[in-house]
Amino acid sequence: MVDRIAEIWGTRTPYARDERWPVRVDQVLAEGIHESDVERWVQSACVLCSNGCGIDIAVKDGSMVGVRGRAMDIVNHGRLGPKGLFASWQGVDNKDRLTRPLVRENGVLVESDWDTAMQRIVSRSKTLLENKGPLSHGFYTSGQLFLEEYYAQAIVGKAGIGTPHMDGNTRLCTATAATAMKESFGSDGQPGSYVDIDECDAMFLFGHNMAETQTVLWARVLDRITGPDKPRIVCVDPRLTDVARHAEVHLAVRPGTNLALMHGLVRELFTNGWIDQDYIDQHTMNMDELRTTVEPWTLDSVAETCGVDAEDVRRAAEIFGTSDRVLSTVLQGFYQSSQATASSCAVNNLHMLRGLIGRPGCGILQMNGQPTAQNNRECGADGDLSGFRNWENPEHVQELADLWNVDSVIIPHWSPPTHAMQIFRYVEQGSIEFLWISATNPAVSMPQLPRIRDILASSSLFLVVQDLYLTETARYADVVLPAAGWGEKTGTFTNVNRTVHLSEQAIDPPGEARSDLDTFLDYSRRMGFTRLDGTPLLDWKGPEDVFNAWKECTRGRPCDYTGITYDKLRGGSGVPWPCNEDHPDGVVRLYRDGVFATDPEYCETYGHDLLTGATIGPETYKAMKPAGRAIFKTAPYQPAHETPDEDYPFRFTTGRTVYHFHTRTKTARSPQLNHAAPDAWVEMSVNDAESHGLIEGDIVRVESRRGHITAPVRVSGIRDGSIFAPFHYGYWDEGTSGGAAPNTRYRAANELTITEWDPVSKQPVLKNAAVRVEKIADGVGQSLAPTTTASRPAERGGNRKHVLPTVGGPAAQAKETMAPVDPPMVATEEEHS
Ligand SMILES: Nc1nc2c(c(=O)[nH]1)N[C@H]1C(S)=C(S)[C@@H](COP(=O)(O)OP(=O)(O)OC[C@H]3O[C@@H](n4cnc5c(=O)[nH]c(N)nc54)[C@H](O)[C@@H]3O)O[C@H]1N2
Ligand SMILES: Nc1nc2c(c(=O)[nH]1)N[C@H]1C(S)=C(S)[C@@H](COP(=O)(O)OP(=O)(O)OC[C@H]3O[C@@H](n4cnc5c(=O)[nH]c(N)nc54)[C@H](O)[C@@H]3O)O[C@H]1N2
Ligand code: SF4
Ligand SMILES: [Mo]
């Protein structure tokens, strides 16, 4: 038994390069429950991050009473992280769930029934469609529903209503991942695989705190690091994360300066001849523009702009340039920072320059964050066209019209899909009067919350919120719909490296809560949406019908699911797409033959100018004759939207802690996790704390031009001049056994963030703003920031209090079974030859 709050990654199982990662099965059962008490184990996968760990749910007396990792799953080989162990089942199977629909009467939300609630939605929807047309409607969904739910929602929006105003919180999350892959390779779809961790010689983590945000993946890395011939690690992050602590080179860049660093790294590859000219000639295009753009970025200019050591930049470039096999991962430190798409494409460029794509150990993981973000992107509930189709390609639009048997004119394709920030702007301006929010909590997670609150409260807006709990957002709704959560419904979803899992229903949803799929189907039926032949637009009976329809939508597309069935996903491991007749067990890594998805007839986009976001358009794109070559895309560096000045001298950045998931609706209901990180904090460096007369635990007010927060200080390993706050803490302190109490202190990081986005991916800039700091009071004790992670107290100076370590105690004991079986084979081992 191991305390998995204190020991985040569990016990080491070292292995060497090219060996298979050993199995370790992690298990937790509710207090007082023994293995022999468990009536059934139900197959699923974890939905608390993009890693997609295979998981079995323990069921007793109609309740979820624990979980264990699936030994045979190619993703996790049996392991689970703290959220999988302690939040997956406790965060849903909970006392204070929404169990009945709520409707607003005389300004207050009151309990109602489904008929009344749906009737209100449908009647408002019909009136608006009649009087104002489809542009009055907006949908803001998630990266946490199931594939089947997105596909239904996408068709409702595109072929039922015909609105381009559809997006998800995936815009805040992985829009840049999708965009960077589309721009460089022609389509979304992860080139690399987790197996590359087993096979690489060097790993670069760009703005990715994998140690806290994909803990099971990091356990795999740690097992390589503690084994023979360990990989060399390079970390790009302004904080001293656990990734940074294991790195040979830590580039603690100033927040907002990623692209300058990337230009410097690319330039070093050119200067030192660390490039594969044959690969470049055969499989890529546009290299000259890249070379010209990076030319000014000498080591010294990078050092000056990014605030790092020139020698460290040189060493990092040398590791990239001279290692046989390099694996790169990219996440929010890049996606939510300035020039997100250009910086993320630069990672692709590094790999293209050396031909390190599609070979063992040479992966690119433009990471996802949410467990099902990939499926929203595939299905197009984020506004994209289903099946990675190109909205600018009339043939692609017609394919969907044929598939759905609707007139192609109803499918919005006259302009790009409306991105989330623009949807909220249209609500603000009053043109969107009907907004349906599912499985996301924008009143905590969107930038510049004072503005978002005003928008959600707009008198012209009819707001539908579909959630498990009465969240900060749901409190603004006109109608609240109670949803069935994970374990209470069946469906599939796809993780970062394209692995598709089936999640089976284990228990009944509480009260009258319904699956999101049932709700979308009900809405479609009540709205009377039909096909050209007059039959109902959506006539599916359940999730498996939707999945079968979805398979047809993906036939011949990069995300080909035609070889997958629910039955194939039962019993064993998840399966990575594309999976079809040619590849019945899926494909481990894409682009092995150096042929990319850039052909004009096939590609998902004709691309953009990365500096301005202007579309390239079909004529220019076709004239470029990409013909299956990858495209070097780049842009000149520009400073962040808001940089420090005299009034606001600090760079503010935000992110996560290992113990919480987003706005904590699930993790705050897990006693183990909530106890480990119960309240907000802000991180400052030793030098900055000293110069402001601050010590651990002192209460500060952090203020931007848009708002302020109050929280205790943790003096941590963050770089000087930067301040970090976790974005998890909103208005509510969730009770773990029913009820939540308001927390009247402003403490959400997004009180301070700015309404700006990347010109190409439209992903909001959640990771840089300018702030000032003021001491409000002496601390009454230490801050409650975890000591086990990036927020651990600085090792010297500044921190003159003794800080108690974060531990889980008896409630956090998990069972680990070492190597009970051989590790699973990756789906198509022959690819390794
Ligand atoms: N425990 C936990 N795990 C999660 C989640 C969670 O909420 N909690 N959420 C999941 C989701 S949806 C996502 S999207 C992922 C996110 O996973 P990550 O991207 O790994 O997490 P973040 O903490 O948002 O950001 C990563 C790092 O970016 C750094 N950073 C900030 N500004 C900059 C910058 O300008 N440049 C660079 N290079 N780095 C910068 C921060 O210091 C931080 O350590 O995590 C997933 N996993
Ligand atoms: N400052 C700052 N802001 C950020 C970020 C950051 O790093 N910094 N990260 C951004 C990122 S990457 C993300 S992904 C977002 C996340 O932000 P949100 O999406 O707002 O966060 P969650 O708390 O995951 O919200 C999901 C909601 O869905 C509900 N839910 C869960 N399962 C189901 C289901 O099956 N059906 C329904 N209907 N509801 C369900 C949950 O109860 C919860 O209320 O935050 C973004 N905001
Ligand atoms: S790594 Fe992610 S998917 Fe795996 S158990 Fe942890 S939260 Fe769940
Ligand atoms: Mo995310």
From TrEMBL:
<keyword id="KW-0500">Molybdenum</keyword>
<keyword id="KW-0479">Metal-binding</keyword>
<feature type="region of interest" description="Disordered">
    <location>
        <begin position="783"/>
        <end position="833"/>
    </location>
</feature>
<dbReference type="Pfam" id="PF01568">
    <property type="entry name" value="Molydop_binding"/>
</dbReference>
<dbReference type="InterPro" id="IPR009010">
    <property type="entry name" value="Asp_de-COase-like_dom_sf"/>
</dbReference>
<dbReference type="InterPro" id="IPR006963">
    <property type="entry name" value="Mopterin_OxRdtase_4Fe-4S_dom"/>
</dbReference>
<dbReference type="InterPro" id="IPR050123">
    <property type="entry name" value="Prok_molybdopt-oxidoreductase"/>
</dbReference>
<dbReference type="InterPro" id="IPR006657">
    <property type="entry name" value="MoPterin_dinucl-bd_dom"/>
</dbReference>
<keyword id="KW-0534">Nitrate assimilation</keyword>
<protein>
    <submittedName>
        <fullName>Nitrate reductase</fullName>
    </submittedName>
</protein>
<dbReference type="Pfam" id="PF04879">
    <property type="entry name" value="Molybdop_Fe4S4"/>
</dbReference>
<comment type="similarity">
    <text>Belongs to the prokaryotic molybdopterin-containing oxidoreductase family. NasA/NapA/NarB subfamily.</text>
</comment>
<feature type="domain" description="4Fe-4S Mo/W bis-MGD-type">
    <location>
        <begin position="39"/>
        <end position="95"/>
    </location>
</feature>
<keyword id="KW-0004">4Fe-4S</keyword>
<dbReference type="InterPro" id="IPR006656">
    <property type="entry name" value="Mopterin_OxRdtase"/>
</dbReference>
<dbReference type="Pfam" id="PF00384">
    <property type="entry name" value="Molybdopterin"/>
</dbReference>
<keyword id="KW-0411">Iron-sulfur</keyword>
<dbReference type="InterPro" id="IPR041957">
    <property type="entry name" value="CT_Nitrate-R-NapA-like"/>
</dbReference>
<keyword id="KW-0560">Oxidoreductase</keyword>
<keyword id="KW-0408">Iron</keyword>
